[in-house]
Design a protein that fits this description.
13 strands; alpha+beta; 319 residues; seven-stranded mixed beta sheet; 32% helix
């Protein structure tokens, strides 16, 4: 399309006031320059920029992800997310372990290729800009994250446990088996978090997003999945401080808690939830205790964990 046709198409799709002075980008080295109304041309397709995506973090306002751009495909009219090349390198701690995390656009591209058509995962494809930089073009998933959904269930924990948790745990089985698929092909998720599972508003299915984080430690996904299970079983983030609030839990429960009942990832969160909620089945409590600061036992592989998860569902939460 020429500039005049592009300007017309932008007005048609967005309803914005016509602007004939939009900037066109053929390379993605500086995504901050791609402001609302700009056009990105990649591999023969044009995308008009709506803005940059934002991501909620725990206890912090939504943080802009300037390298992830919300656009509209000018040909199809569909919302597309352009994920540009971004380099990041940092360390996290699991107990005494210090683990390096870094971004790998190539790994995310491999995941997208492997999981094409598998709607347990976000869908998209990889193209390259004029200078050969990796850009992932992603379908927009309408829905809320698991992180946001759980607190909206307005029930006591006990009622939630019996009425809602069984369905959630069964849906999570699909998500766990999706990670098994990645591992069976020598890949990983790399950034398993409860805000990286979206609940598709059309299907109600759980769908994984964001695969560009990587570690050189094969067990990182396995340790991370413990945080997901902890979050849904506790009905949110349960900390040692929460339990000490007057009247929140019986004194007997408060006095039973020890530092080693905390999460290996987040020491202030209670992972040994069987001490707090006595109606938890032993198999579920035992699973959570594998992810404490001082576990009695470890999972040696993601498949071993997944096998125990399947057994726990069959024994304690049958359909």
């Amino acid at each position: 399309m020429d500039r005049n046709a592009i300007a017309d198409r932008i007005v048609e799709l967005t309803g914005w006031m016509r602007n004939d002075r939009f900037q066109v980008f053929h390379e993605t080295s500086d995504p901050l320059r791609m402001v609302r109304g700009s056009v990105v041309e990649l591999d023969g397709r044009s995308y008009v920029v709506k803005g940059h995506m934002r991501e909620p973090r725990f206890g912090i306002d939504e943080q802009p992800k300037y390298w992830v751009i919300n656009t509209v495909d000018l040909e199809s009219g569909e919302t597309k997310i352009l994920k540009t090349l971004f380099e990041e390198d940092f360390h996290v701690h699991i107990g005494i372990l210090k683990i390096r995390c870094y971004r790998s656009a190539t790994k995310e591209s491999h995941v997208l290729e492997l999981t094409r058509g598998d709607h347990r995962f976000m869908q998209g494809f990889t193209i390259y800009d004029h200078d050969g930089r990796n850009v992932r073009v992603l379908d927009f998933i309408r829905g809320s994250s698991l992180f946001k959904h759980i607190p909206t269930i307005d029930k006591s924990h006990e009622l939630y446990f019996f009425e809602d948790l069984p369905k959630i745990l069964r849906k999570l089985l699909d998500s766990i088996e999706a990670i098994e698929l990645l591992h069976s092909h020598g890949l990983c998720h790399g950034d398993i978090r409860n805000d990286h599972i979206l609940i598709d508003s059309e299907t109600g299915k759980f769908r994984w997003i964001d695969f560009d984080l990587k570690q050189d430690v094969t067990d990182f996904d396995m340790w991370s999945i413990g945080n997901i299970i902890n979050y849904v079983v506790a009905k949110g983030i349960l900390t040692f401080k929460n339990t000490l609030k007057q009247g929140a839990f019986p004194v007997k429960v408060q006095q039973s808690l020890r530092p080693e009942d905390g999460s290996a990832f987040y020491e202030y969160r209670i992972m040994n939830l069987g001490k707090v909620f006595p109606y938890l089945p032993d198999s579920l409590s035992d699973m959570l205790c594998h992810f404490t600061r001082k576990p009695v036992d470890y999972y040696t592989s993601f498949t071993q964990f997944a096998d125990q998860y399947r057994k726990m569902l069959a024994d304690d939460f049958p359909c």
